[in-house]
Amino acid sequence: MAEDEFAKLIKEQKRAVAVRLHAHLICRVTSIDGNRCDLQPLALSGRNKRSLIPGALILKHVREDLKVGDDVWVGFHDNNIDNYVEGSGETFKLASSRLHNINDAVVEGVIT
């Protein structure tokens, strides 16, 4: 394999990995249920809306003022948080080995 072909392959692989990692998104709150909410990402995927993010964890300092229609800054936990129980203070077992996944969303703040 020529050196330039190898460099192209590495670049493509880096992009493929990066596309599957999630760090932050700007979203709109579509519904709230206690400590969790559903979110609509505002950045389009091509010309289409992205899929809703269900059941995002809402941090305590955000919860009191959060309302449907707010734009929020959303982060994604390093690991699976399906087994985390809000406010329990207990350790929890990882339900899977997924990392930086959109299903592990946490509302970190409201954008004003």
Write up what this structure looks like.
The termini are far apart. Strand 1 (24-33) and strand 2 form a beta hairpin. Helix content is 20%, strand content 30%. It is built from 2 helices and 5 strands. With 112 residues, the chain is of the alpha+beta class. The chain has a 5-stranded mixed beta barrel. The protein has one domain (22-110): OB fold (Dihydrolipoamide Acetyltransferase, E2P) (Beta Barrel), CATH 2.40.50.230. The mean pLDDT is 88.
Short account of what is shown:
This protein is α+β, with helices and mostly antiparallel strands and about 110 residues long.
Give the SSE layout.
Elements: H1 3-20, E1 24-33, E2 36-41, E3 53-58, H2 60-63, E4 71-76, E5 105-110
Parallel strand pairs: 3-5
Antiparallel strand pairs: 1-2, 1-4, 2-3, 4-5
Number of strands: 5
Number of helices: 2
Structural class: alpha+beta
Helix proportion range: 10-25%
H and E order: HEEEHEE
Shape: flat
Distance between the termini: 52 Å
- CATH superfamily membership: Gp5 N-terminal domain
The top level CATH class name:
Mainly Beta
For the biggest β-sheet, the strand order reads 1-2-3-5-4
Mean pLDDT score = 88
InterPro entries: Vgr_OB-fold_dom_sf (IPR037026)
Which descriptors apply to this entry?
112 residues; 2 helices; alpha+beta; OB fold (Dihydrolipoamide Acetyltransferase, E2P); 5-stranded mixed beta barrel
